[in-house]
Amino acid sequence: MVFWIIICALALAVSAILLRGAARGVAASDPAASYDLKVYRDQMAEVERDLARGIVNPEDAERTRTEIARRILAADSAAQNDPGEQPTVGTSGYVWGIAILALLVVGSVALYMRLGVAGYGDLALKDRITAAEQFRANRPSQADAEAGLSPEDLLPPLRSGDDYESLVTQLRTVVADRPNDIQGLLLLSVSERNLGNYTAAHTALSRYIDLRGEETTSAEFAQLADLLIHAAGGYVSPEAEAAAALALQADPTNGTARYFQGLMLAQTGRPDQAFQIWDRQLRIGPAEARWIPPIQAQIDEMAARAGVNYVQPSPGGGRGPSSADIEAAGDLSASERIAMIEGMVSGLAERLSSEGGTVQDWARLITSLGVLGRTNDAFSVYQNAVQVFAEDPSAMDIINRAGDQAGVAN
């Protein structure tokens, strides 16, 4: 309520200024007439001076005074800008004042309704993070998300046809009779996915993973997350997030799971963290990885939401020395290898300080500095990396391992 009171007060203040300007337009004098009036009065004074000095006789002076007086009356009438003579000037001023006022009020309200949120105050960064965490903790489950979708919200099937559907129907019967058949469950999951039955696909894969237990691979957990997200129409549910986390626990470099992690953060009000994850994945690559195109399509928007002035790097451009560089180093002497490593370390350090990079790049720099005996530099880089990746537990594991190898971890 206070917000709207302030808005109304500002609108009234601006209105008063505009209408005052319009009123001044009504009473404004004619500038030319005012100038003429001043000139005529100066001429009248000059006649009196000439008469006093005897330059003109009284008869001529009287005639001149009469003519000047007539002109003064006419100029004074014009200077007063009689409303009866120029009614359109005042009317136009008021019309323009009211039009501008209406445009200002309507435009301001329309702009606020589009960009603002009525009833909410400004949120500090801490409050925004807290709100995002609460939303993330209370967001809809997988079942709720699937229940709210229609068939049009899902991707079309990869395969179709009566023959294929008949084979899948037979497979369903076989798996129902043999619920612990691991290979049958895996084949059923793939088949259901091909038909666009994502709920049935992730149900079969979940049963498969339960039977596999500790032998489940990172790729299989990532596949489960993929099916859950497809079944929810692109939404990363808590169940999909958990599957992606298990994939990263088994393999911290799983790019598919990393992409899903960033997507979840983007959907739950943390575009800053989503941007960091996707930027690192772009730099890691490889360029042909399946997660690169969706990241490239969304990361510019994510950077804008995070307040970052961003230019996309080339996919895979931040992976450090190439295999050719490493092979070439093997042919060098000990001193030459040290010099080569020094050069690579200097180049990597400069790039990280100016452009940033992946967690692997930071870890590589820390361990390389440790190998070179530059412990103080390694510790300084380690501290910077801790600040950069403090919100990413998986990245912090990599940084801490690198710090242990370099002997600088806290």
Describe this structure in words.
- The protein is mostly helical.
- The chain has three domains: 2-115; 138-306, Tetratricopeptide repeat domain (Serine Threonine Protein Phosphatase 5, Tetratricopeptide repeat, Alpha Horseshoe), CATH 1.25.40; 323-406.
- Helices cover 74% and strands 0% of the residues.
- It is built from 19 helices and no strands.
- The protein has helices spanning 2-27, 31-53, 58-79, 87-115, 125-138, 142-147, 162-177, 182-194, 198-212, 218-231, 238-250, 255-267, 271-284, 292-306, 323-329, 334-355, 359-371, 375-388, 393-406.
- Helix 1 runs antiparallel to helix 4 (87-115) and helix 11 packs antiparallel against helix 12 (255-267).
- Residues 82-89 and 319-327 have low confidence and may be disordered.
Short description:
The chain has 19 helices and no strands. With 410 residues, the chain is an all-alpha fold.
Q: How would you summarize the topology of this molecule?
A:
Blueprint: H1 2-27, H2 31-53, H3 58-79, H4 87-115, H5 125-138, H6 142-147, H7 162-177, H8 182-194, H9 198-212, H10 218-231, H11 238-250, H12 255-267, H13 271-284, H14 292-306, H15 323-329, H16 334-355, H17 359-371, H18 375-388, H19 393-406
Second-tier CATH architecture of the largest domain: Alpha Horseshoe
Output the CATH class name of the largest domain.
Answer: Mainly Alpha
CATH superfamily of the largest domain: Tetratricopeptide repeat domain
With helices defined by DSSP (H or I, 4 residues minimum), what is the helix count? 19
Uncertain stretches: 82-89, 319-327
**Oligomer class:** single chain
What's the end-to-end separation, in Å?
51 Å
What's the overall geometry?
A: elongated
DSSP helix fraction: over 70%
List SSEs in N-to-C order: HHHHHHHHHHHHHHHHHHH
Counting structural domains, the number is 3
Mean pLDDT: 78
